[in-house]
Input
Amino acid sequence: MSLPQTSSMTAAQYLEREHVAETRSEFLNGQVLAMAGTSWPHNDIVANLQGTLLPQLRTRGCRGYSHDMRVAVKTQDSYFYPDFVAYCGAREEIQGATATLLNPTLVIEVLSPSTEGYDRGMKFFHYQQISSLQQYVLVAQERPLVEVYTRQGDGSWRYDAFSGLAATASMVSVEATVPLAELYREVSFAA
Output
């Protein structure tokens, strides 16, 4: 999650600051975006994602990370911390920068009321500029819903929605599946 701040700097200044910062920030168009705290449902969903996806990724030559793996969008001079990110094959990274991935295959964001518009809009636009990215996934907190955007051969994005606890979301980019009953285990929904 992130919320805009008023500070402005270059990407190099951001990376230098981020290297020693006690709290994480994202960087978009010269603006530093402070990372907001997360809710219990958000944390439960991310933990469930890890528990479900990591064993599947290991068998496919892929690696997955949550929260602390920064992703660079070099063509846009932007940096983000997805809720979950996976890459397959050899890792490409920014040398000298702390945990900055250049070649994600899959990015997952857990939506919150304060960031949903940003995650669906500007952030998704920037992620689309990463040529290695094959899927962008949005996970709702308030109901069992997973939205999957999959890059097609012509560069367009196909949309699939998986709704209800009986559904299973397909992450074809990493050859994995996520049963929504497992994803939302121990998550309570408001009436």
Q: What stands out?
A: The domain at 39-183 is CATH 3.90.1570.10 (tt1808, chain A). Residues 52 and 178 are 7 Å apart (CA to CA). The chain has five helices and 14 strands.
